[in-house]
Design brief:
single chain; alpha+beta; six-stranded mixed β-sheet; 3 helices; 6 strands; globular
């Protein structure tokens, strides 16, 4: 299985980042690359996680994207747009706490807490 989550960040006018999720039978490997509007890479992060369900892995990838964006601590980073192909994660972020599947409930709480550090944020579902 492989999935893709796209993190678009408006940084000082323009900017973008791509978060990629690759899963094997042993581990989930997540990498995110942040580049400016000209394609110059500004930041890159990777993370290895133990295997879990596809929904759990997608939620972990979304959490990494939000944490890394928040961790930049850039005063001019006030808008974050995340787009993911996991409709379950997107719906969970939009849902009330009691509507989220228990498997990802704590991850979704963490995502929502991190998103509060941005003035404006959006999380959209995109098709593969």
């Amino acid at each position: 299985m492989s999935s893709l989550i796209l993190l678009r960040m408006k940084v000082g006018g323009t900017g973008s980042s791509v978060l990629m999720l690759l899963c094997s039978n042993i581990a989930v490997f997540v990498a995110t690359v942040c580049s400016n509007s000209r394609g110059k890479i500004s930041f890159a992060w990777t993370k290895e996680l133990p295997c879990g369900s596809p929904l759990w892995a997608e939620a972990q990838a979304a959490l990494l994207a939000v944490q890394e964006a928040a961790g930049l601590n850039l005063n001019y980073l006030n808008y974050v747009c995340l787009a993911g192909d996991s409709l379950g994660v997107v719906r969970a972020i939009e849902a009330r706490e009691d509507e989220v599947q228990w498997e990802i409930a704590n991850l979704i709480k963490d995502i929502k807490a991190c998103l509060q550090s941005f003035v404006v944020w959006d999380f959209k579902h995109v098709y593969r």
